């Protein structure tokens, strides 16, 4: 049975989704419901492969933790913040083990490595990281972060409440940090996102503008999935609109600058 994190959010909406499709609600709302369901399936598959890869390469306490699955807070962060913003789980390591300043070991919720930088990402629930701490634990909590910074880690902390209530703000903060540190998202996406890579490969193979429907048929996806990723690649500069339409893009073509950069 695949390891899925989407039921945390998706189950309460299933009734609305079924109603929207069966009652024939037209336009954007119906399209949105179908797109959410399709994207949840894609994420579940990528998440399952990602977790399996880490299980194959880890051992000891870290492996035991991963076998138990990620915690609720960490799963929610991936689904509502990291995945929508970055569209890739490459270079992201869950339950990453580091040497403790007391000569022991501790585990970071996530570690992200790229271009020689190491980023620690922590997800903090109010009760476990504030309300239920005694004075000694509170001091230890701060000292731990200070030692991470001294050891060269860049640290990002997100509250569980903010992830649930303000996911878009968390996404923006994450992207601002990656941009500030010179880690623009397209650098990791182009190298590892299987959906985007498949579209770019198809574009190079055809050598002609393609519509979302054509991409969906060629790759066996839902049209909503193809449209969402074509629009994302357009915003990142990999694709350009083709044709004369300005308000609604019907055809996409490969950006020549991207093609020259990757032709070798």
Automatic annotation (TrEMBL):
Record's signal peptide: none
Keyword field: DNA-binding
Occurrences of domain HTH iclR-type (ranges): 197-239
An example Gene Ontology biological process: regulation of DNA-templated transcription
One Pfam family in the UniProt entry: HTH_IclR
Coiled coil: none
Gene Ontology MF: a single term: DNA binding
Protein name: DNA-binding response regulator
Organism for this UniProt entry: Cohnella pontilimi
